[in-house]
What does this fold into?
Amino acid sequence: MGTSHPPLCPPGIKCGGVLSAPSGNFSSPNFPGPYPYETECTWLIVVAEGSSVLLSFSHFELEYHAACAYDYLQVYNGAARDRGNLLGTFCGHSPPPPFSSAWHVMAVVFRSDRHVAKRGFAAAYRKDACGGTLTGLSGEITSPRYPESYPNDVECRWRIGGTGGGGPLTLVFADFQVEGGQGCSFDYVALFDGPTATSPRLGRYCGSARPPRTTSSTPYLLVLFKSDFNIGGRGFKAHFYSATTGTGLYPLLSIRGKQQ
Ligand SMILES: [Ca+2]
Ligand SMILES: [Ca+2]
It folds into this structure.
């Protein structure tokens, strides 16, 4: 009998698991009653490849500690409990902001210690129709429903790069038609020099003029597409490639992208 191991979850309590439906809900054990002591639950959310996961919280109440050392909730981009994939650690009464994974897998870990329990949390997730993580040395991205008009109220993030030994990435737009407006405040495509939207911005574009060829200085490039509540367009189609490979891919895509 494995009596030397502390139970990860008290018997009879449903805790964690794999969530593979396109949308769903989950909560801390015994919610809305107080969660049990000494519990650890991991939920793995897996949606269709090429899409991302949107996570939001409708209730959040965990024991507070300045460093969340007692009870906490952690959200990871991807399956691994790897600090590099950690999107945030939360406790107390401040609900986490809505999260969007950069990949089709997201992990949520809940942990409680042996004293003080609160009501816990309730969360909902859904598959985001666009965006995702692209780790190939080259590829193509398009706005949702391209070349049909893109939907209103969408936000898509493509995180490109992250391959071992990957170098700067170049993005070339082959087609571009996005609702224009002063400062591109309605619909736009924004490019960032890194894996997230907090990285330095390389440009923000709208209208019908194709954005210039853009090369990152890091091995990552984030493409963000946002549309507002009305007026769409054909959207965009763009190719990307990593400049470090000595293969024939680079000149080929270069020439195709220039269209000269
Ligand atoms: Ca506690
Ligand atoms: Ca619009």
